[in-house]
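Reviewer 2 asked us to include a model.

Predict the structure of this chain.
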Amino acid sequence: MAWSDLFSAVALLLVLEGIVPFMSPDALRKTYQRLMDMDDRTIRVSGFVSMIAGVTLLTFAR
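Predicted model (structure tokens):
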């Protein structure tokens, strides 16, 4: 893996994460409020599921 691949992946991540705040800041604000109301376990499980999905997608992409 070259450094350019890593930088490209980080750049793509920033673009994708910037879409929601750009398109709908109010929806993002509401989502953050819902996150504040969730317990730690629920947030950790959703983060874990997200990581597993990302690793799975990356495995199929490579």
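The radius of gyration is 15 Å. The chain has a mean pLDDT of 93. We have added this to the supplementary material.
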